Amino acid sequence: MNLDDELNNTILSFTDIQAELNLRDAQKTMREIVGHLDLTPQERAGLETEIEGLETMMDKLEQTRVQIAVFGMVGRGKSSILNALLGQNIFETGPIHGVTQATQAQSWQVSENSPETSDMGNDVVSYRISQVELIDTPGIDEVDGKTREEIARQVAQKADLLLFVIAGDITQVEYEALSQLREAGKPMLLVFNKVDQYPEADRMAIYQKIRDERVKELLSPDEIVMAAASPLIATAVRRADGSIQAQLTRSQPQVEQLKLKILEILDREGKSLVALNTMLYAGDINEQLIRRKMEIREQSANRVIWNGVMTKAVAIALNPMTVVDLMSGAVIDVTMILTLSKLYGISMTQQGAIDLLQKIALGMGGISASELVTNFGLSSLKGLLGVTAPMTGGATLIPYLSVAITQAGVAGVSSYAIGQVTKTYLANGASWGDEGPKAVVKRILASLDETSILNRIKAELQAKLDLTRNSSVSPQSKIKFTLETREQGTGNGEQ
Question: What is the mean pLDDT of the chain?
């Protein structure tokens, strides 16, 4: 063995090792994706097909099963090509227009001792693909355009290698379908079938026109092969009267070039193809599942946040003591963070929630500071107005309510911002991403319409407190009445 052979063997060995590592990494990732879907029945509803597809692709990856899908117009010999590769008539063929009405699949056992593989040596199956599956599809002109595109998209999305069969110069419909399949980003072979029906000169002229003009922008010359899946040959048959008649009979399939090309692809990159395509498919489906999960959980999270906002606003509006205001507000915010963490399936302790609240508060800067100043100032004023109400005959009651609602509104806006930042943090897997907490907080705060939020808080607070109808009652009595009313109506809390 010379130096070049040793170098080539070393490169091949390294490539095999890398392919095996890629495959194992993909298998591990797929197990984690399927094993950690964490979907509620509501989140699963409507996505059963996608989840089933994800599990099917995991099975394909575990078995290292390569899927080869064939496309083409009716009558081009798609099914015959697959039967020729299989060496037996498995896929239905016939003169009826569009025999194949739905996708069909069949395992293909490649023999190491077949004539087509003799040049590749005894290690022809060195790619160690445990299974190869051939998939037949309906003719691209058998169904309407939208359905055709959907079938092609679904099959091409899962397949590892695509075969596109033509039987002569490519048509406009075929070119458009080929272009769409090319967008799938999968390895593809254009199979010029039924070459036995053309004289040698015509066959080569058509082949060169396809190669150099028709598909030059889509495929390289190495991706175009010629075949005769079910060739017809003329044989001389003597009639009873002694005359000679030409009779067409089926001959042995001529698909050696196609089979060799497929085996070369599998030998070179079979494992990597399975790993890459499975991960691409899993990534697309996983994004759909996560998007659905986040949409549903966001609705629930928004209800949790708004309940926290109103609870904090009412508590602060009703409590005239500054220290108690601050403590109760912090407790409500921590409780909201813990509730949101459970909703997003992320384990968090009370101390963890307090630490997160501190980080968010630091990132919020101005809002947190204004809330603190407002609470100190307005709580003192609110307390003074409440104490002097009996002495003024209730004259300070209206200013008291105005101060309470303003104070509660500021606290509510702060709590709303905290909830929104927490929701983003948890939806991102308890991570700030590459931006850091301050950047995330700043971005979210910039998107909040504080004026609208404040107006909504004031309106709901006014309805909850409902103090204007009994202006003759002291503030302390009114607060007691409001608390009793709220306790009786807890079953119909705000959403």
Answer: 77
